Amino acid sequence: MLLAVALVSPLQAQSAPLSAEDSDPRTLGWMQGFPPPPDRIIGQPESNYFSFPKLRWTVCHFRELLPTRQVSRGLGAPTTLEYALDTGIDAVTFTPLGGDAPMTWKASLTANYTDGLLIMHRGKVVYEHYAGCLDEAGQHGAMSVTKSMTGLLAEILVAEGQLDETAQVSSLIPELRDSAFGNATVRQVMEMTTGLDYSEDYADPEAEVWTYSAAASPLPKPEGYVGPRTYFEYLATVQAQGNHGDAFGYKTINTDALGWIIARTSGHSVSDLLAARIWGPMGAEQDAYYTVDSIGTPFAGGGLSAGLRDLARVGQLVLNEGELNGQRLFPAAAIERIRQGGDKSAFAKAGYALLPGASYRGMWWVLHNEHGAFAARGVHGQTIYIDPTAEMVIVRFASHPVAANSANDPTSLPAYQAVADYLMTSE
Amino acid sequence: MLLAVALVSPLQAQSAPLSAEDSDPRTLGWMQGFPPPPDRIIGQPESNYFSFPKLRWTVCHFRELLPTRQVSRGLGAPTTLEYALDTGIDAVTFTPLGGDAPMTWKASLTANYTDGLLIMHRGKVVYEHYAGCLDEAGQHGAMSVTKSMTGLLAEILVAEGQLDETAQVSSLIPELRDSAFGNATVRQVMEMTTGLDYSEDYADPEAEVWTYSAAASPLPKPEGYVGPRTYFEYLATVQAQGNHGDAFGYKTINTDALGWIIARTSGHSVSDLLAARIWGPMGAEQDAYYTVDSIGTPFAGGGLSAGLRDLARVGQLVLNEGELNGQRLFPAAAIERIRQGGDKSAFAKAGYALLPGASYRGMWWVLHNEHGAFAARGVHGQTIYIDPTAEMVIVRFASHPVAANSANDPTSLPAYQAVADYLMTSE
């Protein structure tokens, strides 16, 4: 649940948040005019830019608030996406989790404050929709979908034999020897089954996430600040709690540790490696970018912003297990291992009521449903949802007022399943 | 001479700066490793990142230190640059201004700490060179070459009848009524013949540039700060000195005022307008970007970073007076007016010893030499040099230890002339 950067306040309780239509950033007029009206300015950091409804503007504009590092698409022509738009999808109906009245697919888009949604079926775009701050030429914060990019890179390195998943972290990153990560294995980090004394409870002012956020901020530290100043410095301070391997605990710092492992192993930051292994080879049509800390380290746990179609290209490449137009970009084993899933019993201990029987592997959420679906998931509704049985990829950018995906899952997960069923039977 | 942002210290006197080779950022190892060694970190803002030799890294990495705003190239394929490389250029010789020994073109590249240089002749690339922090897929700070982009946009709006160059600034921007800009004309702003009480002498701690830099910084203001907080707020405080129209005075704030005029007139920030009118239509191969202030205003006076080839595309488009592959992107009159030049007698009063007989028009430097050359120029050696007679465009990115172009002009201007002569006779 970690937000993109430091300096965010705990999310305020939203008893009755504005609707998607009423909170549309264009309707509210954020950052329009030269200058915008004083009460319509979203600046850094006084304006609390990641609070709703401001976040509905901010999710498309992180680079205007923070230093960032490019994920280059390269210099050539982008690969072409084939289109076979299906106008029947809007009318597909489903029953929200825990509900009893049916809802249409189209209604789910506004219910979930969707900013962008694209569906690929059998390699072709069958649905594409933009709203709020996003259009086809924009980039949107992927939030914790970033984690799945980090995990994908790690699985590629493992599949290629460049990274030993059984290695102890301290053998790769000596600086982490005295931290809780030191005696964890790379695989435990990749599955977030490390035992870490770390809380991301934003409502608790004593939670470790606040120290982490202060360390991660690229802004000048307050006078007298004596804490860690970078991701790396923070990670070295993390203490143990419980035993590695026992339970799944969704803690962003695992991904930052994995980003460090990837950088030390490959010689490239996650932003550069994502460009070299994925963004360039797949023919992205836009550069992407990561927010960075004060020494330029990309935020491997949540800092990526990208275009919707490019995220769809990633999803399709993952569905295709690394093959694109007959060319192999990475070993199929990287995806096969993700699809196998992680330790279900360790996952169950985390108590995700809406994800029964699921697991977490290579920083992807594996649903273990009948279709073998797996997903990248980020706060406020970001996702790459891959259904191998339906040969379907859904990518969604959103700015739901509630961070936790438990707020949008009831109108997302059954909707995805309904569209999958529709696509499989409508041919 | 304004640097990209606030928080730069006055340039230190460099009695014997490192050579181009010895100061190569790869040689010095800036920002290499995870993390880089402590004395090889260039961060924000404590590290004084725009001091030599750090600036040799920084000029390619502004976005990693500062918030930025995208200049989108769009989503299609870039236009192809035709190549006809001429290996004879390296051996072209010239005599530096004020010197007596000849120098080769090739030697001028290192003498000027060149990071990238591309020459177009009759629409084809005849020379391309990268060094230091730059490669073909990188972006480099254009510094005050940015001003010429702002001026180009303004000349386009004037030529299209959207902007009245005779209008008083106060009639377009009421917020500037009580500032020195209020009773200046748009044209006086475009030619920097406004009378402004403003000094960019970085050696003077009382110089107005420091207030300007503090206002322009996107970083949180120090506690107790009471000055202007944005470009716009600063511009409204500028006081008069002398009479408008009397003398050329190279003051960056004119360009920021012009950026404001452009935004108010067109409804688009200079970054968005540059994307819509130039970057997209010309088929750029990379996005560019601007640094921004605390409310997202792009730095019209110096904030652009771009790829070398894309800057060459701009230069070629200007040489072609707005035509690209048979399509007209803007009225030829926009360039014709720049090429006419500005008020030579007003320019002469500024005392540029190395630019005798020159003038400044539409934020371009017009040399009034035999070839009718004109140029965009930025500190530390950035340029777009256009020679209509030789049908030649030279673009240079550089990181010369001395900011003022008077330090590199002696080994640049005669070199450009020599290459022009070579290209005209070598066919």
Mean pLDDT of chain A: 94
Largest interface: A-B, 45 and 45 residues
CATH architectural type of the domain at 82-145 and 269-296 and 303-425 in chain A: 3-Layer(aba) Sandwich
CATH superfamily of the domain at 82-145 and 269-296 and 303-425 in chain A: DD-peptidase/beta-lactamase superfamily
Query: And the CATH topology of the domain at 82-145 and 269-296 and 303-425 in chain A?
Result: Beta-lactamase
End-to-end separation of chain A in angstroms reads 39 Å
Sheet with the most strands of chain A?
Answer: 8 strands, mixed
Output the helix-strand order of chain A.
Answer: HHEEEEHEEEHHHHHHHEEHEEHHEEEEEH
Domain Beta-lactamase-related (chains A, B): 117-402
Organism (chains A, B): Halomonas urumqiensis
Protein name (chains A, B): 6-aminohexanoate hydrolase
InterPro entries (chains A, B): Beta-lactam-related, Beta-lactam/transpept-like, Diverse_Enzym_Activities
Tell me what the structure shows.
Chains A, B: It comes from Halomonas urumqiensis. Chains A, B: InterPro entries: Beta-lactam-related (IPR001466), Beta-lactam/transpept-like (IPR012338), Diverse_Enzym_Activities (IPR050789). Chains A, B: This is 6-aminohexanoate hydrolase. Chains A, B: Residues 117-402 form the Beta-lactamase-related domain. Chains A, B: GO terms for molecular function: hydrolase activity. 2 copies of one chain form a homodimer. Chain A has 427 residues and is an alpha+beta fold. Among the domains of chain A are: 25-58, no CATH class; 82-145 and 269-296 and 303-425, Beta-lactamase (3-Layer(aba) Sandwich). Helices cover 27% and strands 15% of the residues of chain A. In chain A, helix 4 (145-159) runs parallel beside helix 9 and helix 4 crosses helix 12 (332-340). At the A-B interface, strand 1 and helix 9 of A face helix 3, strand 1 and helix 10 of B.
